[in-house]
UniProtKB/TrEMBL annotation:
Biological processes annotated in GO: proteolysis
UniProt KW keywords: Carboxypeptidase, Hydrolase, Protease, Signal
Record bears the keyword Metal-binding: no
Transmembrane segments: none
Source lineage: Bacteria, Bacillati, Bacillota, Bacilli, Bacillales
Official protein name in the record: D-alanyl-D-alanine carboxypeptidase family protein
Disordered: annotated segments: 28-71
Natural source organism: Bacillus taeanensis
Amino acid sequence: MKLFKKMSIGVIALAALTACTPTVNQVEDHEQTVKNPSEETADHLQENNDENKKDSDQAAKNNNEEKKKLPTLAETITKGENGKDVVTNPNDILVVANKERRLPSDYIPDDLAEPNVPFTFEEDVPKKLMRKEAAAALESLFNQAEKENIHILAQSGYRSYETQQAIFAYNAKRYGSEEEANKVSAYPGESEHQTGLSMDITSSSAEYQLVEAFGETKEGRWVAENAHKFGYIVRYQKGKEQITGYQYEPWHLRYVGIEAASHIYKQNMTLEEYLQ
Ligand SMILES: [Zn+2]
């Protein structure tokens, strides 16, 4: 019993959550049915082209409307306990959690799955999990990297509120105050890992560590230049510390979808700026 009591509560929290590790299904094929044009008259083709043009105009219009409908940061918060802002859209692919905006303490993504990518460890633990869409996109990113002879490994994905709470409490005890603990760990609710949309990655060239030097490795550079094609951004950029509230973290990838990721990458923005 004594031995059990001595166990870190973080370990207990982790152990309690290891039961659920579904695997992501294969990414669905997006094959489309193609008509045989030889069976159609030129008139029909012209008509179809007009139709297609109308369709693409409509798609562009819808896209613009979609853009306009993006919730701004101010629209997605409410005052929680202690006057801290709590996000109202934790399930949104574009949710922003940071030092000013907490995730609800009871928020657990309902579609967590394990991406089929190499990890730096073997155990089946919750930190292998991500939301299904993000997990599938991560698989695509890793597959393309492998094709280009870039070897990356996943290190840390989903983290529950309770685990973050346990880590924070442990650090507060260890360092003497919450303030000190906050220098090395996020307050519960303020870690983006709770969204299930983030994954920390590393490589052998970075000695399997989550360190700034990863950004200078061949793997780190490849990821910075290509992640957006798969809907990922390097969330905490150099020179953007005042906006994100975090130091440069070349290893921390965040899924936002291809459209947002491409825009953010090309404009050298942060997620916060994209949603302002
Ligand atoms: Zn991270």
